[in-house]
Structure of N-acetyltransferase domain-containing protein:
Amino acid sequence: MTEVVPSSALSEVSLRLLCHDDIDTVKHLCGDWFPIEYPDSWYRDITSNKKFFSLAATYRGAIVGMIVAEIKNRTKIHKEDGDILASSFSVDTQVAYILSLGVVKEFRKHGIDFTEMMRALGYPRHISMENFRTPNFGLVSEVLLWLVKRYEPQTDIPSDIETEQDRVFFIKAIAQFMATKAHIKLNTKKLYQADGYAVKELLKITSVLYNAMKTKGMEGSNVGEEDISKFKFDLGSKIADLKAARQLASEITAKGASLYDLLGKEVELRELRTEAIARPLEINETEKVMRIAIKDLLAQVQKTKDLLNNVASDEANLEAKIEKRKLELERNRKRLQTLQSVRPAFMDEYEKVEEDLQKQYAVYLEKFRNLAYLEQQLEDHHRMEQERFEEAENTLRLMQNKLKEEEKRLLKSGSNDDSDIDIQEDDESDSELEDRRMSKPRTAMEVLMQGRPSKRIVGAMQGGDSDEDEDSEDSEIDMEDDEEDDDDLEDESIALSPAKPSRRIRKPEPLDESDNDF
């Protein structure tokens, strides 16, 4: 059993007494429910001892809940619990102390605490757990009104819940009252559902009232059973008295300060008062002052009469204006009704244009989406082309750098070979010297231009030598061949003369369309 059991399945739950055969099952359940470990003797006592009252809740034969209570006489209960029971119970009354109460996870949140609290608070109607299996807004509204009256009997909250708007207004009024008066925040959505979730919100109110009732206890031992069932908690009047006391305290402080200041001026005022009393009064001066005062008073009376006359005339003018406005209002109302009853002439055309506009908008929306898609595709294409171009450019740059390095290396190796040729011994023949000098540039050019068969190369690798170097090289050859015949010398000069211009390598001209020049 891993899922929460629905409320409809509670009808299949039954109660029975625990027996000795249930000890193993109860041990396993208590190990899951409680953080403490009970001794084996406790399990034997709750299943066999008569002072314990143990019930098991079974669902389809399996134990899903358990309650263990100890039966005591009223005279043996705890002292702090004595005020909870009513005095009408006799001394021989037996009391059940709940020791353990556990329910498996799948059957939780279908509890009975709300119904028991309402019964303890004195709710006149019996509430069962079955009342909240389906939405019952009437019962929820009745309970809310009763709880609000327990907080403040003088509150005025409308109880009309016929329409949906009335129910919403009722829930909002209850939530606002509890938030301002009792500082209890309620979930209006769950209250409006009026099902098991609403009971959780009602528990917030009933738990406060129930705890207050337990704290206060029952006043008086001779209170009748009828008065005991009624629990009055006038929180609103207490708050009003507190506000009045604070206001009076502030007024007393202000008046005390002003009285202290006036008493400090009493010495000077006493002297002035004595002088005024001792001074003799002149009859003529007194009559003059009285005449002036009477004249001012008569002027104020006349002014007041004029204002009254003006008020009467203004009232008549206002009544005439009001009547005129009423006639205009009635005329405009009739005109409005006439306009509303007549269909405008352009309405058909307007509806047709509106339909065309909707179609055009649909076409525009489709084209706009297509355009956005094509622009995205174009951007992707440009990005891919740019990436290919950058990759080709990097490859070309690497090839050019590699060719430059190879050219430098070959030039360096060519210069070293020339120096070796100059210091050869005189016994080498002219043909061997000529063959060596002609074979090295050809080999260098073949290595340099490997992989580029389409390019035509003109010249030799000794293109960097000047004319003076060429002359000096010819002179060295002539000195080495002085012993040869003059005819051979002429033939060698004729054979070597075409090779001189071919020693310089012609570099490829840069392309006009190249992005980067190296």
